[in-house]
Known about the structure:
Helices cover 37% and strands 29% of the residues. By secondary structure, the chain is α+β, with helices and mostly antiparallel strands. The chain has one domain: Lambda Exonuclease, Chain A, CATH 3.90.320. Strand 1 and strand 2 form a beta hairpin. The longest helix has 18 residues, at 17-34. It is globular and about 45 Å long.
Amino acid sequence: xxxxxxxxxxxxxxxxxxxxxxxxxxxxxxxxxxxxxxxxxxxxxxxxxxxxxxxxxxxxxxxxxxxxxxxxxxxxxxxxxxxxxxxxxxxxxxxxxxxxxxxxxxxxxxxxxxxxxxxxxxxxxxxxxxxxxxxxxxxx
Length: 140
């Protein structure tokens, strides 16, 4: 039995797992080095530094169009997209808010991206991995 077959019996393979594992490792490094208390505008560049040092392609403040009934109605800026595959949203707040997860899911719904990580730079670092499959989307 190969390693991948063994893993699939223990736990299902996660979409973009190798990338998200590296991102989460970088997230914990940034939190360990900077700690809690800075604004999201500082955690973004720190994450970019760590992730590019890991050899990952990073796009910060990436504009993403939002469509409704086939027409572009606006755009939003994703905090970061890594390897054109994983959307990152940074929050630096004491209490997680369910609206943050809804925000990431909305961003995923509006794009071809399927995996999003909500990274919470709280006193204790927290993250949430969210998936919205392309088969469920109405994309132009």
